[in-house]
Amino acid sequence: MDSTIGRRRLLRGTVLGAAALAMSWNGIRVRGEPSSPLVFHSPDLTPFVDELPRPPVVSGRELELTATTTTHRFHRDLAESPAMGYGGMSYLGPTIEHRAGTPLTVRFANNLGEHPFAADIDTTVHGVSEAFRSAPPTVLHLHGGVTPPASDGHPERLVHPGQHAEHDYPFPQQAAGLWYHDHTMGITRANVYAGLAGTVLLRDEFDTGAADNPLGLPSGEFEVPLVLQEKIFAADGRQLLRTTPVVPPGSWEGGGVGDVGVVNGKVWPNMDVARGLYRFRALNAASYSVWNLFFGNRMRFWVIGNDQGLLDAPVAVTELLLAPGERVDLLVDFSGLAPGETVELRNDLAPPFQAAVLGEVAMELFCRFRAQDRAGFAGPVPERLRGGPGMPEALPPLESPTVIRNVTVSQPYELRMPPSIMTLNNLRYSSPEIDMLRQGTVEQWNIVNVTPDPHPIHIHLVEFRVLDRTPLRTIEYQAADPQPPVGVKWTPSPDGFLGGAALPAQQWEAGWKDVVRTDGGTVTRIIVRIPTAAELGFDPDAPFSRVAGEPVSVTAPMDVPSRAGTHPVHAGSHADDLRGYVWHCHLLDHEDHDMMLRLRIVP
Ligand SMILES: [Cu+2]
């Protein structure tokens, strides 16, 4: 069993770990089959007893958004759980609806009390201090927003309890389903899991969201955001951040799957639907799991858009893979159901190696739709969405890259659970080797994933297109240029180590993206367009203060409470001002430690 326990954890946690193992079995009932003694399990819960909530919609040029600690009931038969929410909600946040190209200012405030996962915070992780337990900082990131650096929600620009930050969003981009969530250095996984996430529906003159929209898409009650997550609950109703007793309390886990589906904040909810077409804006807001989504009756549905906007035309599918951070814009036709007939949204993708070795299994159910008598939206599935009259321009062909950038996704050689650290380019977050992307260029990123597991890679500010995925002869690749100790950049070219034919991007992932699923042992190629300051309307390389609410070039006090970067291994970024953006794995445990690097968009 030693080989499955983190050595770093073992040294200081053997006794604690054994105690946790024993206590977990007294306190938590096992739910269903199969079950593993190495995984926590939710109590038995009856599905479909709660109605699917629809988050309230807010809009306007100036919004206030406050993060608060709350209690939230996830299921009729569960007691209330400590949680976090935005904008007065007990969990998640309101849906922000906004017109692209019009500025939005969000006054973001931190009103958080003691962290619901205070005992689970790992202060050995980069940037995390003891104070985060009682007075958690938070950072607001608008995922997919084309946002000036000072407003992007840089993970080091912490907003502490009692503080606020102004975020300016010019949105020089097209209609898309974006989302906002916490991005705090080292505790993003805890803050998002607690509830700090919400949907943004960005509109434009084509995708207006109104009933008379020129694309003929369902709107109003027939357009529904689905914030999809999975969780584990304790018998007392508390949501559990931990997934396994193998890792002692207070230690970074590296990620694990849940055993119940949560949609818009409720466990396995029901939604009564009219017998017609619906538009679902689905988001994988989970910490760790990639899902293969499908309907229980295997009915066909249509993908009309993904992360950054609409596809040229709807793509009919019966299932699709959705990784954390990714969004899909779906049309689902319930007109074939008889009144009272039901169909579930399901998943059947088994968890990856790292979770499967603990006995973790797929979380198979999200929610149920029950057909009403009434007919609903009667319009057909549109034939085209782009490139015709009253439509946005067709997606442009892929541009030829002028820069080839090899990046690696890896964990150190070791047989342990969890790994001691996850890395991009074999570097820590604090590495001074910052990727410089030159404005106006087109880059091809060869994302070389040498782990056995999928990792969704998200790049802030830019949009990209997915080219293809090619199997990598991983062992030979690593043998030819062995991975040095963490901290030494390691990005060998995959040329000469490809192990098969390139699999082109799926038709439904052909549009503009900001997250790409990179599979284990695979080279994923994306084409990244680096925007210019003129195109953006702002300087993407402008420095900004690390202290929210203060101007650039203040003499930043070195005694800011809970100041990041105190860990001796990680103390690498102590400049007063910040600059640029980040790119990272969107598995939240991974981005916390340390699968996140800084990047700059330079002239
Ligand atoms: Cu990852």
Description:
The protein is mainly beta. Strands 10, 11, 12, 13, 15, 17, 18 and 20 form an 8-stranded mixed sheet that branches. A 6-stranded mixed sheet has the order 24-23-26-31-28-29, with no helix packed on it. The radius of gyration is 23 Å and the shape is globular. The chain starts with 6 loop residues before the first helix and ends with a strand.
Structure characteristics:
binds copper (II) ion, mainly beta, 603 residues, disordered N terminus, 6-stranded mixed sheet, 8-stranded mixed sheet
Question: Can you describe this structure in just a few lines?
Answer:
The protein has 603 residues and is mainly beta. The chain has 7 helices and 35 strands. It binds copper (II) ion.
**Cofactors, ions and other ligands in the entry:** copper (II) ion
Largest sheet: 8 strands, mixed
Beta-strand percentage range: 25-35%
Helix and strand composition category: mainly beta
- Kindly state the mean pLDDT as a whole number? 90
C-alpha Rg (nearest Å): 23 Å
**Approximate shape:** globular
Give the number of helices: 7
Assign a percent range to the helix content. Answer: under 10%
List the helices and strands and how they pair.
Blueprint: H1 7-27, E1 57-58, E2 62-72, E3 81-86, E4 95-99, E5 104-111, H2 131-134, E6 140-143, E7 164-169, E8 176-182, H3 188-194, E9 197-203, E10 223-233, E11 239-240, E12 260-263, E13 266-267, E14 270-275, E15 277-284, E16 291-295, E17 301-306, E18 309-317, E19 320-322, E20 327-333, E21 342-347, H4 353-356, E22 365-375, E23 403-410, E24 423-424, E25 435-438, E26 442-449, E27 455-459, E28 463-471, H5 474-480, E29 503-504, E30 515-518, E31 522-529, H6 533-536, E32 544-545, E33 577-578, E34 581-585, H7 588-592, E35 596-602
Parallel strand pairs: 1-4, 2-5, 4-9, 10-15, 14-22, 23-26, 25-35
Antiparallel strand pairs: 2-3, 5-7, 6-8, 8-9, 10-11, 10-12, 12-13, 15-20, 16-19, 16-21, 17-18, 17-20, 21-22, 23-24, 26-31, 27-30, 27-34, 28-29, 28-31, 32-33, 34-35
The structure holds copper (II) ion.
